[in-house]
Amino acid sequence: MTISTNNAAASGNSGMPPVEIGEAVKRFREASGYSIEDLAVTCGLTDVEISRIETGEDVDPGRVKRIAAALQMPASVLDSL
């Protein structure tokens, strides 16, 4: 898998690489006991969109915020995105 600089720039984050954002989302999802499918239903995204975020392929800030809200991720984590 490759991560283009376009994805990194499009993510809008100031320091965290897309793969690290995805890993953080995955850790919170698993800690919350959600499957990808359960999280997709909860936040209104598709399972494919969530999978792409977790692998760092697409870390669209709007989608990440929807996931973060569904997982009740602390604001301090979002600040680093």
TrEMBL record:
Matching InterPro entries: Cro/C1-type_HTH, Lambda_DNA-bd_dom_sf
PROSITE patterns: HTH_CROC1
CDD domains: HTH_XRE
Pfam families from the UniProt entry: HTH_31
Ranges of residues in domain HTH cro/C1-type: 25-78
Designated name of the protein: Helix-turn-helix domain-containing protein
Organism: Rhizobium herbae
